[in-house]
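Take just one protein record:
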Amino acid sequence: MLTKPKKSLGQNFLIDKNILQKIVNSVSIYKNKEILEIGPGTGNLTHYLVKKNPKKIFVVEKDSELSLFLSEKFKNKINIINEDVLKISENLISKQKLIVFGNLPYNISTKILSKWIISTNKSFWFSKLILMFQKEVADRIVSEINTSSYGRLSILSNWKLDIEKVMDISRNSFFPKPKVESSLLIFSPKNKFYKIKNSKNLEMITRIFFNQRRKMIKKPFSQIFKNPNQIAKKLNIDLNLRPQNLSLDIYYKITKEYENLRC
């Protein structure tokens, strides 16, 4: 017998059939493709993925009771990985690039996305990410320069990925009903992106800048560089601007400059 959704695991199951179909149809799934679903829960989305008849379906489900339930429900139609998604090595799941679906637990959604971005070096282990986030988080991911929601998550997410917002999803589409709305985003790997030696440097630099997001960037610049005025001139940056006024590319260039000076 299936137990009640566990609040500790952030379990809110998507039950709206119309939305489930829209999610599955948001990308082309061919019979020779392999699918990875994160947090399948009771298998509502899995059901529609199985109908698409892909080459193989992997699901990562941390909850042992749900894993057993899914095994009984889908038999050999899916391959269940009963693990914490934050602890698995996704690139070892398959030799193929995976199409990834996920109704991510709100409490760890940014950790999961950050892990996937940071762990990717030259080649991507996925071809698409179709992910659901709390709307406020999704808005931060897709936000643009000179907006209040533009910040560290926007800069990290757009570094290696092109992002498209597909739709907002009402909280009424879930059980149990969450307190917030959700949004569906599609991420596609970029062919070219700034080569940063250590992603932790990008995280560090954006943290320094956005810890004081309402102040001019003179101070964070002087924290990062010994000769801030010289670097600012080289990169054509006005130190009277504020963190949200700098483009994505500028943050990548600042990080690259930081790394070059420490080689």
